[in-house]
Amino acid sequence: MTNKISVSKVLIWIFVVILSLVTLFPFYIMIIMSTHVSEDILVSLQLLPGDYLMKNLQTVFSTNFLHFYFNSTYIAVISTAGCVLVSSLAGFAFAKYSFRGRKLLYGFLLATLMIPTQLGLVGLVIQLKYMGLMNSHFALIVPPMANAFNVFWVAQYMKSSVPNEILESARIDGCGDFRLFFRIVFPLIRPVSITVFLLSFLNSWNNYITPLVVLSKEKLYTIPMAITLFSTTYRNDYAASILALTLATLPIIIIFAFGSKYLIKGMVMGSVKG
Fold it and tell me: 15-32: buried (b, 16+ CB within 10 Å) or exposed (e) per residue?
């Protein structure tokens, strides 16, 4: 029995290692290609590091890449923090409060999930032009805070993960609604809050279509837009673009490395409860 268990564990570990190598191989190739000149990576697949890394770094940072990095960082952090707050408050209201029109409003919220993002972008641009907010980071920070899927996810999680008895006891002790939320409810929904944070940060960091439509000033560009600056009329510097992509991927890898267990826990519990 012990031998069978040992063999099965070894096979599982071998499978996991192989799967990890297959998953990490594209990222490894991306790093390797960023150390070569563009002409080399167009000829054949490069598996060993080159000697053109410093030149590619100079090309990347010559485009004011750190400024674009800052733009993406502060936009992603602010919009993600707002999304977590709005989604948690709205999910709390739908899950734990009974008010007139709740089912109708919740149904309308779910119906918006069927609207393609590209179609909603048309209305967003019209509204931003009417308000005079085109060519600003406002369109990249505030609209993503209201995310119907995140509200639905948090509400599903709260329905069974936040006992009504705790809320009733807190109200009997004189706890107000906002104090009840921030002192009791919010700590209880930490897994799903971290899940919302990770997904929202990823969406904001990788967002390309919205900045492409609403931004025309180069100083306002985010990283996805900045990468296009390496392509000119006469030459596409693929190596520099790949190096910029590698640098842009690092924050996502670091965040998911520390928050992956909360992401899995929040997604699993939110999908089976309620």
Answer: eeeeeeeeeeeeeeeeeb
- Look up residue 30 and give its two tokens: 């991306």
Structural domain boundaries enclosing 168:
60-272
pLDDT tens sequence across 203-234: 999 888 889 889 888 889 999 888 877 765 44
Report the CATH number that the domain containing residue 267 is assigned in CATH: 1.10.3720.10
d(CA 198, CA 80): 8
Domain assignment present for 54: no
> Does 44 reside within a domain?
no
Would you say residue 134 has pLDDT above 70? yes
The pTM of the whole model exceeds 0.90: no
Quick check: is 10 in a domain? Answer: no
CA angle 64, 251, 153 (to 5 degrees): 125
- Beta bridge partners of residue 231, listed in sequence order: 236
**56-90 tens-digit pLDDT:** 888 888 888 889 999 999 999 999 999 999 999 99
**214 and 128 Cβ atoms separated by less than 8 Å:** yes
Whole-number Å distance between alpha carbons of 128 and 22: 44
**What residues pair up with 236 in beta bridges, in sequence order?**
231
